[in-house]
Amino acid sequence: MQVKVINHPLIQHKLTLIRDKNTGPKEFRELLEEVAMLMGYELTRDLPLEEIEIETPVTKCTCKTLSGKKIGIVPILRAGLGMVSGFLRLIPAAKVGHVGVYRDPQTLKPVEYYCKLPTDVAERDFVVIDPMLATGGSSVAAISLLKQKGAKNIKLMCLVAAPEGIHLVNEQHPDVEVYTASVDERLNDHGYIVPGLGDAGDRIFGTK
Ligand code: URA
């Protein structure tokens, strides 16, 4: 199983609060945004730098700056939306695409119902965002869509992952690095991650 678990104490602390069923939507959204920012810090560790000349108030110096790599983030609707603002606080210039995928109740296969991506897909590095990597069907479908449109470098960021979902992504897209704050035990009979945090979309948007 290829997965990077981000064990930072702040992330783990906030994840526990997020998991707690007594945490209401306002706090849930705020915590999710904070965790997305902290996870984004880890995901962007390998961004290339270049050196530029600047002048401080004291002297000229050669300093490092991001080398202009273009980033795109793609939340999977709808729960992925809850992690967008946190990531954008780190990289405000990132373009945001959206992918909507649902599971056909008959075939149980993912069906795309919405896809809007930046026009320059082939020039960007992408982070696909879904707080919950459950069966992995939606993430695999979203990554396949991005690849069809020309994306070459894709990472997957999820708050909580089930082993089943990680296996599927590893199998279908071995080039995609999966980042998570926790690999949970399993999926239950209803497709929920155990112990998980319930339905992420419902908890973000206050629906049932
Ligand atoms: N989606 C969720 O929101 N929660 C789960 O546990 C699994 C999928």
Which small compounds were modeled alongside the protein? uracil
Q: Alpha-carbon distance between the termini?
A: 33 Å
Within the CATH hierarchy, at the fold level, what is the topology? Rossmann fold
User: Ranges with pLDDT <50 over ≥5 residues?
Assistant: none
User: How much is the average pLDDT?
Assistant: 95
Order of helices and strands: EHHEEEHEEEEEHEHEEEH
CATH class: Alpha Beta
Please sum up the structure shown.
The chain contains six helices and 13 strands. With 208 residues, the protein is α/β, with parallel strands linked by helices. The model has no long low-confidence stretch (mean pLDDT 95).
Folded structure, characterized:
The chain is an alpha/beta fold and 208 residues long. Helices cover 31% and strands 32% of the residues. It contains 6 helices and 13 strands. Strands 1, 4, 5, 6, 7, 8, 9, 10 and 11 form a 9-stranded mixed sheet that branches. A two-stranded antiparallel sheet has the order 2-3. Strand 9, helix 4 (137-148) and strand 10 form a beta-alpha-beta unit. It is globular, with a radius of gyration of 18 Å. The structure holds uracil. Uracil binds next to helix 6.
SSE topology sketch:
Blueprint: E1 4-5, H1 9-19, H2 25-43, E2 49-55, E3 60-66, E4 70-77, H3 84-90, E5 95-96, E6 98-103, E7 110-116, E8 124-129, E9 132-133, H4 137-148, E10 153-161, H5 163-172, E11 177-183, E12 186-187, E13 193-194, H6 200-205
Parallel strand pairs: 1-11, 4-5, 4-6, 4-8, 8-10, 9-10, 10-11
Antiparallel strand pairs: 2-3, 6-7, 12-13
Bound molecules: uracil.
Pfam family, one: UPRTase
Binding site for uracil: 193, 198-200
Family: Belongs to the UPRTase family.
